[in-house]
Amino acid sequence: MSDRLGSEEFSYFVTYVTIVLLKMVFMSPITGFFRITRKVYANQEDTVGQGVKDNKTIMNDPVVERVRRCHLNDLENIVPFFGLGLLYALFSGASTSTLLWHYRIFTVSRLLHTVVYLNAIPQPSRALCFAAGLAVNISMGVQILMNNFNL
Fold it and tell me: The pTM is what?
């Protein structure tokens, strides 16, 4: 396996996983930005010094909730991609080209999903972005199993 860690396939994995993980990391400051600019705080102590009347928390702002849901959706999809993508690079037996296209499609689907989600672009745009990423994860999982169990 150590020779696979230095392989071109593993290098692609590292590149594309880094892109989607950074995208997910940036969702936290985006959420913070909207919380501060809209004066929407989840905890009472966060309101101190922010000019919030009576230090009341507001937890149901539609814009902040949209950003939070987008971030949560990343957690639900990028974490499995991390695991499956790693196993795919190491154990799928897929060609470099096939592997690369799986990673590219997933990455583009997640970036587009965020743009669509945050800008409230009408369905089925978000569903299609989600489905593309889901299809990649399923495809990688099936290929890993088929290659390792000779199915």
Answer: 0.88
Q: Which residues contact 115 (CB under 8 A, 6 or more apart)?
A: 121
pLDDT tens per residue across span 32-44: 899 888 888 877 7
Please count the CA atoms within 13 angstroms of the CA of 141 that sit on its side-chain side: 10
> What is the Cα–Cα distance from 126 to 122, expressed in whole angstroms?
8
Q: What single-letter DSSP state applies at residue 1?
A: -
d(CA 117, CA 80): 20
11-57 per-position pLDDT tens digit: 999 999 999 999 999 999 999 899 888 888 877 777 776 666 665 66
Distance, CA of 112 to CA of 140 (rounded, Å)? 20
The span from the CA of 116 to the CA of 123, in Å, is 9
Kindly state the helix (H) or strand (E) to which residue 57 belongs, with its residue range.
none
Which residues does 81 contact at the CB level (< 8 Å), separation at least 6? 17, 20, 106, 133, 136, 137
